[in-house]
Amino acid sequence: MAYRAWFESLRDPDERYALDEVVYEDTQGALLQVVHDLDALRATPAEEWKRLFDARAHRTEWPYGSGVWGKKEWVLPGIDPANIVSMYEGHSNLFWAERYGRQLGLEDLWIKLCGNSHTGSFKDLGMTVLISQVNEMIARGAKIQAVGCASTGDTSAALAAYAAAAGIPAIVFLPRGKVSTAQLVQPVSNGAITLSLETDFDGCMEIVRQVAANDGVYLANSMNSLRIEGQKTVGIEIVQQFDWEVPDWIVIPGGNLGNVSALGKGLLEMQEIGLIDRLPRLVCAQAERANPLYRSYQQDFEKFEPILAGATLASAIQIGNPVSYEKAIAMLRRFDGIVEEATEQELVDAVVEADRTGLFNCPHTGVALAALKKLVARGEIRADEKVVVISTAHGLKFTDFKVMYHENELPGIESRLANEPIVLPARYETVRDEILRQIERRAPRS
Ligand SMILES: *Cc1c(COP(=O)(O)O)cnc(C)c1O
């Protein structure tokens, strides 16, 4: 049976486009989605899909060892494997955060470390799909001069890397002074045309939309639903890693809201194809200073109003006008979802407390952990439920705020657990006395 997929309007199933058309929105200006021929996918028994996905995982047979391309039939069934641009993304570790979970009052807390990936964030999952599709279109003669995106940092890093691997020019539009050093040096190193604009993410997004509409630049933001097809594999992969058991909750930070939409889409397709028979509940966590979805949730999603996002340490989710809000709301409704928020102090506290148990979190993961703390405290999440927190980026991409925290220099933040390096002369007695003092000071192991 031939597997097929196409772009489809969210509102009108008759409005369809081929995946190699350059189109990002429907005639009403709303987002498109990639839709699969589910009947064809259902013709293969669920147990066979599971066996196939398990057999491919972590192998080197091109391109199926990748966590995304191991599920190629569900992602881009028609693409020629020779045109796929992959750096074996996915299969990021999912581990039991026993000690931190116990601190929160949870027995079964798991962290899905999506930051353990080629460019250090989950954005690789979507970018491998988008760049592969562009690569195939170019191979078939399409005139695409370059790929471009607005970014809060991680999207541009992923775009630059995958475009460089394919030999396609990339242009990234970054809000000046609002991305970390590590995030800025990634596209620079990969040779992307790196533009630092005097605006915020939403301002960069407006410019890149114009460039995409007028100047032959292919748009790589998550309003391009090809990205969602790659990112949706995270939910499938979590269930696969639990030997095809569904957890009770998945907590995920949200900014532009593409990732929470993608997570939901993957899980729904698993249910529709028959691999799972129940759904987890979803929690989308926002920074209090960039919380338009939280505000909408407070009113039962009756309306949605963009806001002007304030400065937050969770810079990758500092977005006031998220493009995927409609998809996200639809998913949260399907998954009996909750939206929670975290202040700057709450997100920092969560990062630091979790780091003390051996994790090394980015601030966005801190937002998710802070939201989780609140839901456990309110009794909405029970002690014995299986909870997965999606950690969206590698902590090493966001060390600036940790350094400042431990130096007690984060404006407006109380550094209760600051742990500054101790400068000492290299003399045995002095060192020994200091070590003994320090050991004494620390609380006994709980
Ligand atoms: C992009 C990003 C997010 C937010 O994902 P959205 O799809 O924009 O909601 C969260 N954390 C990190 C580290 C990111 O790079």
Give keywords:
single chain, 446 residues, alpha/beta, six-stranded mixed beta sheet, 13 strands, 14% strand, globular, binds pyridoxal-5'-phosphate
How would you describe the overall organization of this protein?
Helices cover 39% and strands 14% of the residues. The protein is of the alpha/beta class. Helix 5 (123-139) packs parallel to helix 6 (154-166). The protein is globular and about 75 Å long. Bound molecules: pyridoxal-5'-phosphate. Pyridoxal-5'-phosphate (PLP) is lined by residues 121, 123, 154, 222, 253-259, 316-317, 362, 364, 392-393.
Task: Note the topology.
Layout: E1 5-9, E2 16-17, E3 32-36, H1 38-42, H2 46-56, H3 72-75, E4 94-96, H4 98-104, E5 108-113, H5 123-139, E6 146-150, H6 154-166, E7 170-175, H7 181-189, E8 193-197, H8 201-214, E9 217-219, H9 226-231, H10 233-241, E10 249-253, H11 258-273, E11 281-287, H12 292-298, H13 325-334, E12 338-342, H14 344-355, H15 363-377, E13 386-391, H16 400-406, H17 428-441
Parallel strand pairs: 5-13, 6-7, 6-9, 7-8, 10-11, 10-13, 11-12
Antiparallel strand pairs: 1-2, 1-3, 4-5
Helix pairs in contact: 5-6, 6-7, 10-11, 11-13, 14-15
This protein binds pyridoxal-5'-phosphate.
What letter string, H or E per element, gives the SSE order?
EEEHHHEHEHEHEHEHEHHEHEHHEHHEHH
The counted number of beta strands is 13
On the 0 to 100 scale, the average pLDDT is 96
Distance between the termini: 57 Å
| CATH class category name of the domain at 94-117 and 228-406 | Alpha Beta
| Morphology call | globular
Strand % is: 5-15%
Low-confidence stretches: none
What hetero molecules are bound to the protein chains? pyridoxal-5'-phosphate
Helical fraction: 25-40%
Biggest sheet architecture: 6 strands, mixed
Radius of gyration: 22 Å
Structural class: alpha/beta
